[in-house]
Amino acid sequence: MTPQREQHLLAEIDRLRAENELLRQRVDQILRQLFGSKSEALDPYQLDLFATDPDTTGAHAPPATEALLPPPPVKKRSPRKPRDNSHLEVRETLVIHPAVEANPDDFREIDRVSTDRYDFQPSVIFITRITRPVHVPVNNPDGVPVKAPAPPSLGLSATPRLVAQVLAGKYCDHLPFYRQHGIFLRRYGVDFPRNTFCHWTDVSADLCEPVYKLIHAGLLANTNLQADETPIRYQNPGKGKCSTGYLWVIHAPRNGIKGDILYQWHPSRKAACLDDLLPSYQGYLQTDAYAAYDSWIAGKDGIILVACWAHARRKFHEAFKSGQTLAAGPLAAIARIYQIETTLRKTHAESAERSQVRQARSAPLLQILKADLVTLRARPEVLPKSALGKAIDYTHTLWAKLTLYVDQGQLEIDNNWIENGIRPTAIGKKNWLFIGGEATGQRSAIIYTLIECARRHGHNPEAYLADILERLPAMTNQDDLTQLLPSRWRAAAATDPAPETALSV
């Protein structure tokens, strides 16, 4: 065998080994996605085990830089918080001794011993009947009959309370209509057809659309938004199978606090969908690396794209889980950056303070991380098509967008909060599988928006829906609908507590 032939075979062996390693990593990644844990949490000691290896990259900060950060706090088990039951109704029952009941004048009360137990009252379905008597004048029997005007209603065969229960069951508790149909039938003996639930949803969504539009207008008035999209299948009779539509989502963070969120349905993932989602928007827009956002802002002024560190970290996490231990250095460095953000959120820092702290503490760590990524990328074992190589290239490509948050205190380090808002839809579609049709998608988006905004403002979604469905039929275009926004909504006055009852034994 000639030397040239031998060199050619050795090079071919090296190429096949590298290709085999890449394929193995991809298979491992697919298996983890199918059967592995979705959590990205890593033990910091596990990262230190690899990051302190002298043969690995120095992507972690040197001792001089670590002085900028406080030592990682020791996690202690926090004491259990006392239960706050002040909002619960108390129904008291007096248990009187038979001797005292027989001769109450012979005894004097000196104390009371109370025992509290939690109780539950199952739901009860009943018929609310509104009767309006028809009268005629006594002195004019042939006159025009009179009757009281009908109170405002949804025009349905159900009250707002029952409709809100059904809507919350599907869009908050992820129960498909066929399951709710079975629950009502077996537990309460009432047979509600599933198409009746669909009709209630359509009417409710159309009625709540003005409130939905107010939420949309309020979000567009912000100068800092996050955007994302998630696929949802819907029935497409013309094709004889389900097609894929998308819920586009925008969210307005509020200095470390979750803000309002809005869902909008589109049958595609084209960049043109953003024309309806973000008409005339001006400000920062934090997204993932989906190319539609870049193509949409091309030629537009006043919109600045911001990248998400959670997406960048996820790629290094995937590389580390696939066995590429060199990713431990970048993961440890990103963890230190996130420690700063955790402290800022816990202290509820304002925008100016957030910017100042980030420039003093996060900026040096980011500079070191960038230099170490360049060094790491040049190592021969880091192949361009490997998970680690792709993670480094992804981070370098978006570096300017990833570091914008340092100087702008109102920006967040990632868009995890908008992904948290997408999670209810992901859980829901695992249960109800698809949306009934293309026209139904936007109605589902309206209900999702109202429920998720109510939850983010600390309201009971079912109580919120029941209240606004009760009020909206009586309102006109001249009424102030802003009082129905989740950010300004106040529940109706509570009913009087149940009277005290006495029980003899």
Can you offer a commentary on this structure?
Helix 7 packs across helix 17 (438-456) and helix 17 crosses helix 18 (461-471). The protein has 18 helices and nine strands. Mean pLDDT is 84; it is low at 52-69 and 493-505. Among the domains are: 43-71 and 310-407, no CATH class; 147-208 and 452-484, no CATH class; 210-308 and 433-447, no CATH class. Helix 9 links the parallel strand 7 (283-286) and strand 8. It is globular, with a radius of gyration of 31 Å. Helix content is 47%, strand content 10%. Strands 6-5-4-7-8 form a five-stranded mixed beta sheet, with helices on both faces. The protein is α/β, with parallel strands linked by helices and 505 residues long. The termini are far apart.
List keywords for this structure.
globular, single chain, 9 strands, 47% helix, disordered C terminus, 505 residues, 5-stranded mixed β-sheet, two-stranded parallel sheet, alpha/beta, 18 helices
What share of the residues lie within helices?
40-55%
Unreliable residue runs: 52-69, 493-505
Outline: globular
Q: Can you count the beta strands?
A: 9
> Terminal Cα separation, in Å?
106 Å
Number of helices: 18
Q: What is the C-alpha radius of gyration, as a whole number of Å? A: 31 Å
Widest sheet, order of strands: 6-5-4-7-8
Sheet bearing the most strands, described? 5 strands, mixed
* N-to-C SSE string, H for helix and E for strand: HHHEHEEHHHEEEHEHEHHHHHHHHHE
**Strand composition percent:** 5-15%
Mean pLDDT rating: 84
Structural class: alpha/beta
